[in-house]
Amino acid sequence: MSYNLLKGKRGIIFGALDENSIAWKTAERAHEEGAEFVLTNAPVALRMGTINTLAEKTNSEVIPADATKVEDLENLIEKSQEILGGKLDFVLHSIGMSINVRKGKHYTDQNYDWTHKGLDVSAMSFHKLMQTLYKKDAMNEWGSIVALTYMAAQRVFPDYNDMADNKAYLESVARSFGYFFGKDKKVRVNTISQSPTPTSAGQGVKGFTGFMNYAERMSPLGNATALECADYTLTLFSDLTKKVTLQNLFHDGGFSNMGVSQEIMEEMEE
Ligand SMILES: NC(=O)c1ccc[n+]([C@@H]2O[C@H](COP(=O)([O-])OP(=O)(O)OC[C@H]3O[C@@H](n4cnc5c(N)ncnc54)[C@H](O)[C@@H]3O)[C@@H](O)[C@H]2O)c1
């Protein structure tokens, strides 16, 4: 169902790799809600992925940008405003990557070059993105910036590895930069803390299936899907949430406030 929630709004969507990506679903839904946007991803991901299919479907252009490179971000933000014909109303940061996770390097045995790279891609890129938007004065008043995160930023999930630390940094940057964006430009900045979701990044985490099943059984509403995450993200881009900022918003079927569920108790008693 479409509500025209984003009619007339312009934005940039990072991170659509394939049709499972949360950013992919967000782009499809944003298009249905009347938004115009530019799609972007790292050059290497553009070569591997199928983003052109999404671009055609949503009538949008693709501009490559490595989110760790400020010059790429500058180019992206300038070109996007030219293509869309004005300042931006929304930006989605849907980017995550840990080489330690990918290569199965344990948290107690980090390769710090990889740790550094993962921090840059997954977290510092959010600061770089916001600093570039801020300096270029590229956001309209009452615009909205959202990044995706996971609850391992607050609680221990052993196999989430260094991504837990990256997400803690990301959430902190949302608050710290969100203050200046709010005060100086009337722009809101939030993070959405999403349930485990079967995407390329999600499935890279060791024991992901166990992780997902556990969360499913713990959550009174069950895990939130990528499409449901897209819907929630759109509400934050819409004019219906203008005074929501500096928040880390759990979108997890209730998981984050659970102690234990009946299903898990029954399993433990077997
Ligand atoms: N899947 C889950 O279980 C889950 C749960 C909570 C939060 N998240 C977060 O959601 C976001 C989106 O991930 P997803 O699950 O849709 O997986 P995904 O693999 O589809 O998306 C991750 C994206 O990051 C992009 N990326 C990597 N390096 C980049 C760089 N240098 N510059 C620009 N882009 C780069 C990838 O190309 C990819 O498109 C991530 O921040 C992830 O941590 C995912």
TrEMBL record:
Keywords: Fatty acid biosynthesis, Fatty acid metabolism, Lipid biosynthesis, Lipid metabolism, NAD, Oxidoreductase. SUPFAM superfamilies: NAD(P)-binding Rossmann-fold domains (SSF51735). Pfam families: adh_short_C2. Pathway: Lipid metabolism; fatty acid biosynthesis. Its EC number is 1.3.1.9. It comes from the Bacteria. It catalyses: a 2,3-saturated acyl-[ACP] + NAD(+) = a (2E)-enoyl-[ACP] + NADH + H(+). Belongs to the short-chain dehydrogenases/reductases (SDR) family. FabI subfamily. This is Enoyl-[acyl-carrier-protein] reductase [NADH]. It comes from Psychroflexus longus.
